[in-house]
Design brief:
Blueprint: H1 5-11, H2 17-33, E1 38-40, E2 43-46, H3 51-66, E3 74-77, H4 94-109, H5 120-123, E4 134-135, H6 138-148, H7 157-166, E5 168-170, E6 184-188, H8 195-208, E7 214-217, H9 224-236, E8 244-245, E9 261-264, H10 266-276, E10 285-293, H11 295-305, E11 315-320, H12 322-331, H13 333-339, E12 343-346, E13 361-364, H14 367-377, E14 380-383, H15 386-393
Parallel strand pairs: 2-3, 2-4, 6-7, 6-9, 7-8, 10-11, 10-13, 11-12, 13-14
Antiparallel strand pairs: 1-5
The chain binds FE3-S4 cluster.
The site of FE3-S4 cluster has 15 residues, from strand 10 and helix 14.
Length: about 400
């Protein structure tokens, strides 16, 4: 891979240990994927923030980089393993919290904004159409590529951090026009009516278009929250982190409809619900906010919970970005939801928090959330609409 003189100097250690290490990571990656050069990125979003996933080896890697590493571009963080302020209230063990705080301190030292959210595009890191970025949270990568038309591969935690420290990323994959072309048409022949249906649709399309870029037809409109849910599930269940929807996403008009075609009908959506669900009747936990809740979703939950009471047998979590929670405080939504017995949990999510053994089963409106609650925290899944999640747990 071609390197400029300035990049060579970084590789030779002239800008210090962290910059050298970062350049080594990018060069290795560029060589593996056949990139011809590095390009500048406008922003970075780093995943691999939870101590639950990083462990001591990850903490040591970050502490070493933080000795002389400083980010060159605006960089935000994916969720950590706990609410950084109220972790005690959520029963996070103290030794875990100490380690998690050390992880966050390392990121802070490097000049990273401690946003801890998987929806940076709704909080504080909104890219523009056509911009090259280096993001690592899969749902955010898919949203940024597909809905915004920014360009990023799905970076791993170390390669995103390397991009942040150098301001560069290898020029390959979804940064290139030719790799953004759709390979398969997916015709939707049923009404997709709410956020969980969009999650189920992502399940169907992800499975049908594994490692491909779908071109979706038959959708007349979709809200940001629905597209956020879809972005999360379609990539979780198999497709590349980019899709086009005719008449909705900004790059769809650049392409002809691909010849290969699959059709999704009402029965497929029904089947997706039954495949995502486990056989479970009782739930002791409800989780809304995968991806993190927007202010509109929180407003809607507040409307549904007004003057209601959640059963004391169930813990009800809303995960969101701290910034969005602060807005919810100001608008009065927090008070309504907390009065009903719901809890806000910021900076984290159920997939990356140490919750194994704490809850037996989770009810959620997120197809991705269900997948990771089972995979990372061994919970059984009840996947339902948001309205159902609330109806089931409020006292009658
Ligand atoms: Fe976000 Fe966690 Fe879901 S990072 S997309 S809330 S699994």
């Amino acid at each position: 891979m071609y390197l400029t003189k300035e990049e060579e100097k970084i590789l030779n250690g002239e800008e210090g240990y962290a910059a050298k290490k970062s350049m080594e990571i990018l060069v290795a990656l560029g060589n593996i994927y056949g990139a011809e050069k590095l390009i500048d990125v406008k922003s970075v979003q780093v995943a691999g923030v939870s101590y639950y996933n990083l462990g001591d080896a990850g903490l040591e890697f970050l502490s070493d980089l933080a000795k002389d590493g400083k980010v060159k571009v605006f960089t935000t963080l994916n969720p950590a393993g706990m609410d950084l302020v109220n972790w005690m209230e959520h029963k996070i063990p103290e030794d875990f919290a100490q380690k998690q705080n050390l992880v966050v301190d390392s990121f802070r030292k490097m000049g990273i904004t401690i946003s801890c959210t998987c929806i940076p595009y709704l909080a504080d890191n909104l890219p523009k159409f056509g911009e090259h970025i280096a993001w690592s949270e899969s749902s955010a990568v898919t949203f940024a590529n597909s809905i915004i038309g920014a360009r990023t591969n799905k970076e791993g935690g170390p390669s995103a951090l390397a991009a942040a420290i150098t301001g560069k990323t290898p020029f390959y994959g979804l940064h290139l026009d030719e790799n953004r072309r759709p390979n398969i048409q997916v015709e939707i022949k049923t009404h997709i009516k709410n956020i969980s249906d969009w999650g189920a649709l992502g399940y169907c399309i992800g499975k049908e278009t594994e490692n491909m870029i779908p071109y979706i037809t038959g959708i007349k409109k979709a809200s940001v929250d629905e597209l956020k849910s879809f972005s999360a599930s379609v990539v979780t269940y198999g497709s590349k982190p980019l899709f086009h929807i005719k008449g909705i996403t900004p790059e769809a008009k650049n392409y002809d409809i691909p010849k290969e075609k699959v059709v999704i009908e009402a029965d497929d959506i029904k089947k997706a619900y039954s495949e995502i669900n486990d056989d479970v009747n009782e739930v002791d936990f409800v989780w809304i906010g995968c991806p993190h809740c927007s202010i509109e979703e929180i407003a809607y939950i507040a409307r549904l919970l007004k003057d209601k009471r959640i059963s004391s047998d169930v813990e009800f979590w809303i995960t969101t970005a701290r910034k969005i929670k602060e807005l919810a405080d100001k608008k009065g939504y927090t008070k309504i939801i907390e009065n009903a017995g719901g809890k806000f949990v910021c900076d984290t999510c159920v997939a990356v928090a140490p919750l194994k053994g704490r809850f037996k089963s989770v009810m959620t409106n997120s197809a991705k959330g269900g997948y990771y609650s089972r995979a990372n925290n061994e919970m059984k899944i009840k996947f339902r609409s948001l309205e159902d999640c609330i109806n089931v747990v409020v006292e009658k």
